[in-house]
Every structure is written in C-alpha cells, then in structure tokens.
Design goal:
The chain is mainly beta and about 475 residues long. The protein has two domains: about 375 residues, Neuraminidase; about 70 residues, Immunoglobulin-like, CATH 2.60.40.1220. It contains two helices and 32 strands. A five-stranded antiparallel beta sheet has the order 1-2-25-24-23, with no helix packed on it. Strand 16 and strand 17 form a beta hairpin. The longest helix is centred in the first third of the chain and has 10 residues. The two termini are about 35 Å apart. Keywords: Signal. It holds the Pfam family GSDH. This is Glucose/arabinose dehydrogenase.
C-alpha cells in the first residue's frame, strides 16, 4: 500500500514540478547586505494564492481563494491537492483565506493534524464568514467542525489570517466588512482580532469575560505573526492613507475608524487617550496594501536576521522591517523583489528559505502565463554547519523531564535562550539577565524540545522533555 500511495503522489501534480533534488532556474538575484539571494519558481499555474504555511510534515501547505487546499513538495514543486471546500464563495476579495496547522491535536495519533481555515460562504443569499477545523490524516482532510460562523461579510474587508499560540488558543483577524463603525463595536466580531480555544470556546482569560474579542479597531488586517519571545505583530490596510504595522497587545484599541495611522490630529489624540489606543509602529501614505507577514531569524541570510518580512500587494514588493531590541520601533524599511506582481503570502522553512505566493489572478493584477506562483528565495551559497558546544560554553537544564517550568544554569550570563520543536520552529525565547534563567513551559504540548543557548563564547544545544 505504501508503494502504491507513493506512486499516486508522484503522478498527482497539478502544478509545474521541478526535477527532484535539482535547483530551479534563477529568475533573478538581489543583494541582502553581502549575501546574494536567488529567486526561483517552486510551483506555478495556481490561482490567487492566499496562504502559505510550512507544515509539520515539511511540506508547504497552500490555500487558493477558490477553495482549494494543497500540499507542495519543497524539493520538487509537486502540488498535491487535498480538498476543494464546496461552500466557499469567491467574489472580489472573498473566498478561502487564512490557514493554520496544529501538529499535535489532543488525543490524536502522530501524523494527525488539526487544520484550521477561515473562508467566506453564502447563507440564504447573504455572504458570511466562518472558522472551520478539519482533521488531516494519511493524505486526507475530513471531519469539518465549524468553530465560529455567521460572521457578517461582504466581498471586501474580510481579513483574515490565523495564528496558533503555544497555550493552544488561536487568533483570527476580521475586517470591518465595509461598515467602519463596526470596528469599534464590542457587540460585533468585525474589525477585530479574535481569540478562541482550539475547540471554538472562549478562553477564560480573554480581555473581556465571555467575549472572543482580543483587540478592536481594525480596518482590514491581512498579516499576523508571533515572534519566539511572544511578541505579536500584524499588517493592516488603511483607506487611501496610513497602511499600518501594529504590535498586538491584549485588550488594546487600534483606532479605526476614529484614528488613521498615528494619533497626530487633535481629535485623534483625544480619542486615543480615552480609548487605550495602541499607535502603529510604522505607516505608509500613499498606501502599499501590506499582506502576509513573517519573522526571519536564520543564519542563511544574515542581513534579514531579527526582522519582519512583509509581502506587499499593490506596490509589488517584499519589504524588510527591522526591529529594535525591544520590538517597539521599526528603525528601517528596505524593499526587495519587485517585478513579480502582487505578493500576498509568505512563510520561512527551518532551513532559512523564504517562500512567497503571488496573487496576480485576484482580479487586480496582470498575471503572467505561469501565474500564480510560489517563489523560493534562498542563499544558494549557504552551507549549514553542525551545532557544536564551544570550548568553555555549556549549560544545564533541571529538572529534565520538566512540567510547568525548567531552570537553565549557564556557564556565563547573557546571550539568548531559544526553545524549539524538533522541526526547528522556535516556540519560546528569553534573554537571561544572569547566569540562571527560568523557562516557562506552561501551555506547551508534552514532547521533546531543543533548548539552544547563544552567547559570546558560542552556541550549545540540549534536549528538554516536557511532560
């Protein structure tokens, strides 16, 4: 059966596969500092790519706005369709939107994932939006469960990105559905970032008891990312001015429609003071239509380390947003990768490659013959080196196995501690102020993790078992 299944997978491509283990032809190259980054096409002939997620199976998971969910082999470009959701309504900006994957759903065997998607559908002639969880096993998506539905929608301003948090809650962005005042209404789910448990219930520690609202005052947020240290950022479309990058904080108000961008007009300043408004970190006027947002911190492209990477629709570019040490300001913005049209989705592999989905068939672009495409950005000269403890640089973890917390004893103070899963995806980070640090493990799934210590003397890694 395994041989048969592998043969079927090899034949089941609807994209443009590349020869296995061969490098794709370079479409362009560009410099990031002293590093040459090569852009190539991984897969082609897709239609309005909306989401890219690096999956726990080391495949790229992709949504297309028409309703199709697929897995893409990052070595060959082979597109393996999983499901086309029958009740997706694609019209203008509406359709199948964000996706997130739970690699370890409660009570399920290894290799079974929870797959969350958000999409627009039609209910008795009215367009709406809902959040649905599927179960993935053995190449099949099944058992859809509606976690949240009946959200007011139009063909514009639906959001919607999903983000899974380590405490097994999720964030979901919603747009204002072209009714700007709804963004400030606490009885409406529009113009918000919502927080739910994985089963769709409302977390007991949400900002307002019994309410799914995590933040309010959003116009149309289309990017959402969490850094290893827990900071969360979003990208948001403005009207004809003030596209925004926001730092998301529980319970805060982000101003729309009373505030556009910064609190820099008298009426805006008054509203901001009275309503706990969090100003954006940076804005764009004229607007650029910011979309997918990710965080890059890999040695393959050193010039991007510690930065946000933003996929941009209207201005057809990839933008690097540097962060200060506290993550409270964006000191610089640098643009790359023009010439490929509208860019909407972005993800990073554990190997430090960046994958970008174009959105030129969304009715607002000028598609090339092979659009839409998944592009690979990589440093082809990068050779990973094995992680070895530096002489005189080590650390201990106790207890190990651990439950709610573990103590790290370093041989020298300072540096950075990063907790990652076995796929190399960071889930937690802390900068110790002394030679002893405490890791907060509450909310982490039981399993084996890697603790990496970086300091002036080098790098060292140890395994940590969480019970």
């Amino acid at each position: 059966m395994k041989l048969l299944r592998n043969a079927l997978l090899a034949l089941g491509t609807l994209g443009l596969p590349l020869a296995a283990c061969a490098q794709a032809p370079a479409l362009t190259t560009f410099a990031v500092g002293t590093t040459t980054v090569t852009a190539s096409a991984l897969a082609s002939n897709l239609a309005t790519i909306w989401e890219l997620v690096w999956g726990p199976d080391n495949f790229i998971w992709v949504t297309e706005r028409s309703g199709r969910i697929s897995r893409v082999n990052p070595a060959t470009g082979q597109v393996l369709p999983l499901l086309t959701i029958a009740d997706v309504t694609e019209s203008n900006e509406s359709g199948l939107l964000g996706m997130a994957i739970d690699a370890t759903p409660t009570g399920q065997p290894a290799g079974t994932y929870g797959v969350f998607v958000v999409y627009n559908y039609t209910d008795q002639g009215t367009l709406k939006e809902k959040l649905v969880r599927y179960s993935y096993t053995n190449g099949t998506l099944s058992n859809p469960v509606v976690l949240l539905g009946n959200i007011v929608a139009t063909t514009n301003h639906s959001g919607s990105r999903l983000l899974l948090l380590p405490d097994r809650t999720l964030l979901m962005t919603t747009g204002d559905a072209l009714v700007a005042s709804e963004a400030q209404s606490r009885t409406s789910l529009n113009g918000k970032i919502l927080r739910l448990n994985f089963d769709g219930t409302i977390p007991a520690n949400n900002p307002t008891a019994g309410s799914a609202i995590y933040t309010l005052g959003h116009r149309n947020p289309q990017g959402l990312v969490r850094l290893p240290d827990g900071r969360i950022y979003s990208s948001e479309h403005g009207p004809n001015n003030d596209d925004e990058i926001n730092k998301i904080e529980a319970g805060r108000n982000y101003g729309w429609p009373n505030v556009e961008g910064f609190c820099d007009l008298p009426a805006e300043a008054t509203f901001c003071t009275a309503n706990n408004v969090r100003e954006p970190l940076t804005v764009w006027t004229p607007t650029i239509a910011p979309a997918g947002l990710t965080y890059y911190d890999h040695p393959a492209i050193p010039g991007w380390r510690g930065s946000l990477l933003l996929a941009v629709l209207k201005d057809h570019k990839l933008t690097q947003l540097t962060l200060d040490a506290a993550g409270l300001t964006i000191p610089s913005r640098t643009d790359f990768l023009t010439g490929f049209g509208r860019l909407r989705a972005i993800c990073v592999s554990p190997a430090g490659k960046v994958y970008i989905g174009t959105s030129n068939r969304d009715g607002r672009g000028n598609p090339a013959a092979t659009d839409d495409r998944i592009l690979t950005l990589e440093n082809r000269a990068y050779v990973p080196t094995a992680t070895r403890p530096a002489t005189g640089f080590s650390f201990d973890i106790f207890p190990n196995p651990a439950r709610r917390q573990a103590t790290v004893q370093l041989s020298a103070p300072g540096g950075l501690l990063t907790l990652s899963d076995l796929l190399g995806r960071p889930v937690y980070a802390v900068r110790p102020t002394s030679s002893t640090a405490t890791l907060d493990l509450a909310g982490l799934r039981p399993g084996t993790y890697l603790v990496q210590a970086d300091g002036a003397a080098g790098r060292s890694t140890r395994k940590l078992v969480v019970e």
